[in-house]
Every structure is written in C-alpha cells, then in structure tokens.
Amino acid sequence: DILKWLHSDDFKEKHQLIQENRQEGTGEWLLRSEEFLNWKKGVSSRILLGLGIAGAGKTFLSSRVIDYLEDVTERGVAYIYFNYQDQQSPARILASIVKQLLCKLPSTTRFPDIFNDLHSKLGSEKKPSQDQLRSVLSDVISLFPSIFLIFDAIDECEEGLRTQILSLLLWIKTLGEQVFMFIISRPLADLRDILTDAIEVKLSAHPEDINAYLEARIEQTRPLKPTRSPPLLVRYKDKIIPEIRNSAEEMFLLAKFHFDFLSKKINARKLLDAIETLKNPSSRVNALEQCYKRVVDGIRARDENDDLALDVLALLSLTTTPLRVSELQDAMAVIPGELELDPLNVTSPEMLVDICGGLVEIDHHSGTIGLAHYTIKQYL
C-alpha cells in the first residue's frame, strides 16, 4: 500500500477513541467564539493558538474542531496528536500530513506525479527525506481550495524538537493563503515568541461541558432494570454536579478525579462528607497535585494490591518509551530470585488499571499502557 509506505501511524484511530469519550455538545462554545470565527475567515491571522492549563480538556476541544472542519468535504483536513511518550520528528509529521491529505482527495483525482515518481524512485523499503516530503506537500496543498491543520498538545514535544516543529509549521504556512493552522498547547513563552501574529484563544472546560460530562457519568450508574431506589449518585446529583463544577477550576481532569473520588463512597453520609471536602479552599491549592496525592494515599491505605499498584506507577513514571500491555504484565509478574516467569502470577490488564485508581490507562489503538496524563509523571 503506497500510503502505508509513506506513514504507518494512524491518528484516525486515536481521534475516534477521543470522540467516543467526548460528551455530545462539548466545545460548542469554542466554535461560536469570536477568535475561532475570525481565524476560520482568515481575519488578521491564519494561525489560531489555543492555550490552556494542564488538564483543561484541550484534546477534547481539538477533536471537536476536527469534526467540525471535516464536515465540509472540499476542505483538506489533517491533524497530529502529540504525546510525550512518542516524540514526532518533523519528517514523520510531514509524512502524516501528506498521507492524510492524499486520503481526502476525490477518487477521481490522481496522486501528484511528484509523489508517484518518488515512490518509484525509492521503492517500498526506503522512506522519503524531509526535503522530499516538503516538495510533495507543496504540490498536494495546491489541490485543495482550503487546508486546515490541527496540532494538539505541541507542548508535550521536547523543547529542542518543538522549536524544529514550529519552524516547520511556519514554513507550511508560506505554501499558500489557503493554509490555516490550529495549534494547541499549555501557555509557553517560546510559542508566543515564534507565533507572533497568531490569534490566541483560551481553552478550558466550560461549565456547560463539565455539566454534560458529569450528567453522563451519573447516568452510567443507573442499572439496566429499574430498582426501588435510584443509585446513590443519581439521588444526590443536584449536590454533586455544582460542587464538582465549582471546584474543578475549569479542568476536565480535575472534574474526572473528583467524580471518581465521590463514586467510591458506599453510603449517603460518606458521600455528603466527601462533597463537603470539595468546598474547602485549601483543597484548591495545587488542585491536581492534591488529587494525585489523594489517589496514591488511597492506594497505600489498601490491605492488598498496594505494592503492585505502586510498582506499576513507579515503572510507568520512569520508562522513556511506551510499554506494551504484555510488557508491563510480565514485569509485574517477576518474582525476585525466580529464574522463570510464573504464568499464574500474571495480572490482567484490567486489574492493573483498576488498582491504580484512574492514574493509568490503556491505549487500545497502540496496545500500550501508560500514565493517564503527563502531569501524573511530574507528580510522581
């Protein structure tokens, strides 16, 4: 397959996974914002810089923008989801953009001659260089009336690599007036220094987005068959939703951990007491750090599985490359002094995730397992 030769990574599956976890209606406020509308029209700048603090739900907002832009078929839309565990080189980024745009061409449109000639010249084993990919991209862009490129979480790139990528994006911008870019990140000085003419928009979890998320999580606790008494979270949702929303400080990640914390309460008294702790102003200082501490303290307080959970967190915080699920399972099954792995000591992936209290997640697209957010690595 000529396109697979160009680039094997598939951000489409990653995007679909994010879609599945995004609540209906999330991010509509962004599509209505003055900054977004001006950017889409090319007013003052063709670069939109979306800035938000860690845990603000920026990736969900990125995915909503992608869906919105892809609804118009004649547009060329391509996107990159950056990840601190898998650093993307400029050549890989170019290859992915070219591949995605070629996939968007109508079936009646031939691939550019420069691309077909390059494949014939290099063969299936050798990959094109960055300079060769630049030439191909220049020709591909000319086939579309408008091009929209979305780069999510560019702040997760290492600083030196990020500078190279930003230089590449500025070059891509010069390829035509029809090229628009949406770059999403935490607020970083180097972004503003390099993207001096970008339109800035603040990205955060708006109250309406948090409400929709919490409503959906609470509804998921309802049993399939009606019961005499509604579930605990359903009965107290009028208390739960406003308190989590007010204490989440416009962070989706914080809302998630607050909900996970409350959902473990076994009776009304414990639930109401836990809700009261969210009102404590001191709990809002370094709020994410407080959440992570609460989860880790809860793991340590358990009678069993605490050592295994802490070992999982320690290994995932130290690894420099993504671990496959089976690799983590094998590592956790090792018994000191034993020369062979005991298959009876292998823990299921679901259990490894469950005992870590929401701090660990599986990427089913890549088959890897890692920390649920890069800020967890910083905390650990």
From TrEMBL:
Keywords: Repeat. Residues 307-380 form the GPI inositol-deacylase winged helix domain. Residues 25-186 form the Nephrocystin 3-like N-terminal domain. It holds the Pfam family NPHP3_N. SUPFAM superfamilies: P-loop containing nucleoside triphosphate hydrolases (SSF52540). The keyword Repeat applies. This is Uncharacterized protein. It comes from Choiromyces venosus 120613-1.
